[in-house]
Structures are given as structure tokens and as C-alpha cells.
Amino acid sequence: MELKKDLVYQGIKYDIARGRYQVGEKLPREIDFAAERGVSFITMRSALKMLEHDGLIARIPSKGTFVLRRTPAPRPGKVRTILLLQVDYDAAANGGNIFNRDLILGAVEQAYLDGCRVQVDTFAEVRNLPERFAAGEFDGIIWDRPESDLAPLLEELREMGVAQVTINRFQDGIPALGCDYPEGVRAAMRYFRSIGHRHIGLIDIGRDGEVFRERQRAFLEELRFDGIAEAEKYLCRVVNGEIDYLGIAEWMRGIPRTTAVLVSNVYLAEFSRYLDAAGIAVPQQLSVIQQGEIENFSRDSNSRFSIFTDPRRTIGSRALVTVLRQLEGNSIPVKMERIVGELIIRCSCALPCHLQRREEAASGAELS
After folding, report:
1. Architecture of domain 81-178+311-339 in this structure
2. Cβ–Cβ under 8 Å, residues 90 and 96
């Protein structure tokens, strides 16, 4: 399920592409435009900011919002081809299907609006990319989580003038996009705190990558801000890539005051097994938010768990736009652009037990 601002953004962009709004035309006032599209003023303003970022509109104070250009038509006789290169995680039980699928859908939908095509491939056959580019097989590349061993190849392609963007990884000289994982962790922690939780645990991937270190730092900072002593005890970093329900049980025994847990989707199956084996009721005894989606634990499933989603669909769309803007000769900032996901609260979160009992006692006193 996409955010409303993304749907409004894509809808207006499509209308500009097909000529409903002509170059130089003044768009309706934001409040009227929002009413016309059936969305809030805030949603419309966010969508217009995205269109302005793409260079399709200009917002001039006291004058209004104007269409700058239409989505460029493909060159005669040639449709631009953008490679989307991914690690082949589909066979792994770590949510790869959903994670990869949503990125592909975002890029393909955007390609339809922009009159180009996306060719999806894995990193298995990348060594001949310079030759393929020289032969005109593709025009640009979206790299999904390229590892450091590919850095020389990315640099060689950059020197050849290939338009590129990386996702969730940063390479010198190349624009990058990524999920704002630290802000996602902070949002989940703030929500837990808002309903009375202070002792909160995190089960996360222990790989030595900046993307993992950043969100774990954010978690520890939030705990320390709330005055939790020995905050590191509440972080379970799975350094060997695997943990079973017994390992989770041992970790939980070391933090007995824990009333809420944020858990990476990679370990959700074993975490669920731990809950069943320990007879822990969610949310009566423990509140849970999962980080990212996985088969059977997605926004479209009947899972009870709340989710902080990865904004992969939006990232796929923005990645394609970033590559096309490079092909048009635009200068793109070489930095990591962060995109925040969505916090979907379900029935896995409630007041911690001691507050539930206090509320029940107060309610009983009022009745008597």
C-alpha cells in the first residue's frame, strides 16, 4: 500500500506527461488542488514538493505553481533501458521476495510514466557491463545494495559517463537513495514510549555495515534519552546471521523488565516461535513492532504484528527518476537521500502490564 502523497505525485506526473497540464500552465491553488484530488492539503503539498524536486514544476511565492516541462519523450527509434541490478535473495527466507518485488514495482511503474523500460537482473553477470554499455545495450543502472567488492566496477562505469544510482549503499561520486532506518527506529521507539513503554528491546542484524550501525545507534540513543541504564543489554545483535528461539529466550531472560520489542523481519519466525514456546501473549504481556516485511508477516497478511515498512516502492520510483535526470544532463547531489517508511500499528501494541493493571484498578474504583 503506497502513501497517498506518492499516488498523488504519480497521478499529477502522469497528467503532465499526457498533456493534461501544459508547459507554462498554472496549476490550481494547493487547497483547491487537494480538494480536486480528494486528499488533504498536507498530502498535496508533499506531492508537489516531489514534483518540484523532479524539475517538473516551479512553485513561485505569491504567483502560484507552474508546469516547467513535460516528462521527456524517448529518443526517436530508441527507448531508454535502465538496468536494475539486485542481489538474488529470492530463494532466502529473509523477506527477499517482498523486498525485491516492491523496488521493482516502483521502478517499473515510474518507467511506464517516463516512457522507458526497466531490465531486472542480478549481480551474477556484471563484469561485462562496460562492454555492454559501449554496445548500447542500456543507458543507466540502479544498483540495489552493491557490496564493496563492486566499487571498482562502479567507478569504471562512472568514468565512462554511465548514469547510476545506488540503494542503501554509498559509493563516492554516485547519487544514493536509502530507507531512513534510524528515523524508523526512532518512530517505533517514540510510539512505544507514547503508550507507556520504557524498557524496549531490539533484535537486529549484526553485520558490520553502516546501515545496521546507524539504526542500532539510534535505538541506544533513544533508550539512554529515556534514562535506561545498561542500554546495550537491550540490543540483540545477531552477529553470525542466525538465532533460534532458545537464543532469543536467553537474551530475554537477561532483560526481564522488557515490555516491548522491535524485531528485524529476518528473525521474526524464530521470535514468533519463542513467543509460543514461552506462552507470552501479545500484546497483553509484550508489545511488538517488526522492522520490514516478510512473507506471511506483511501489510497484506493477517499477521497481528505492527510493522515499520521499508519504502522500497517509493525508492524504486525515485531511483529511476534520478537516473533519468542524469541522462538529461542535470547535476544530482552526490549524497544519500533518505526516505522514511510507514509505521503501521496493528493489535500487537498495548499499554505495558503495570499500566494496564493501574487503568483497570482506576476503572473499577470509578464504578464502585
Report:
1. 3-Layer(aba) Sandwich (3.40)
2. yes
- Amino acid in position 128: N
Residues in Cβ contact with 336 at an 8 Å cutoff, skipping those fewer than 6 apart: 170, 176, 177, 178
Q: Helix (H, G, I), strand (E, B), or coil: what is residue 125?
A: helix
pLDDT tens, the chain, 368 aa long: 446 788 888 888 878 877 788 888 889 999 999 988 888 999 999 999 888 887 788 887 777 888 886 655 444 557 899 999 988 654 444 445 788 888 998 898 888 888 899 999 888 878 799 999 999 999 999 999 998 899 999 999 999 999 999 999 989 999 999 999 999 999 999 999 999 999 999 999 998 788 899 999 999 999 999 999 999 999 999 988 789 999 999 999 999 999 999 999 989 999 999 999 999 999 999 999 999 988 888 888 888 899 999 899 899 999 999 999 999 888 888 888 999 898 999 999 998 875 555 544 445 444 44
- Residue 67 burial (CB count, 10 A): 20
The CATH number of 181-310+345-359, from 3.40.50.720, 3.40.630.30, 3.40.50.300, 3.40.50.2300, is 3.40.50.2300
Class of domain 4-67: mainly alpha
The pairing of strands 140-144 and 163-167 is parallel
